[in-house]
Design a protein that fits this description.
The chain contains two helices and six strands, in the order αββββαββ. By secondary structure, it is α+β, with helices and mostly antiparallel strands. A hairpin with a 2-residue loop joins β3 and β4.
């Protein structure tokens, strides 16, 4: 009986992780071309990240500048640079929506993560774009 409950728990853990990773892939844009769909956006690089780090009081919220590329059928169709801040986000959402595979839900938010933390260094390869629908 003990072995059976361990097996059931293990199976549930594996299933939950596979579901979580499948959902994660649908809402993240990373630094490589890896989609099975005909349209994809790739984060080429983060050019500048001047967002106010967590744990620090700032006068200005800051902004992040990124270079992204849109692909169709594994071929680049457009590469642009965006500075994401409060005033530019609607135009950026429009560009992303145009270049992403069709979704039933509306793109609500675009986040560049990880968010800066005071005195915690970041590696360029750690960045990705999170889409919130």
């Amino acid at each position: 009986m003990r072995h059976l409950s361990f097996a059931v728990c293990s199976l549930l853990f594996v299933l939950m992780n596979s579901c979580a990773s499948a959902q994660k892939n649908d809402t993240e844009i990373n630094q490589k071309l890896d989609s099975k769909s005909d349209k994809e956006i790739v984060l080429v690089k983060v050019i500048d990240d001047s967002r106010c780090p967590e744990g620090v009081q700032c006068i200005w919220a800051g902004e992040v500048t990124i270079d992204v590329a849109a692909y169709e059928n594994k071929k680049i169709v457009e590469q642009v640079q965006f500075t994401i801040n409060r005033s530019s986000i609607e135009d950026i959402k429009t560009w992303f929506t145009k270049h992403l595979p069709s979704k039933k839900d509306t793109l609500k938010e675009i986040e560049v993560v990880p968010y800066p933390k005071a005195e915690v260094p970041r590696k360029p390869e750690d960045y990705y774009i999170k889409l919130v629908y």
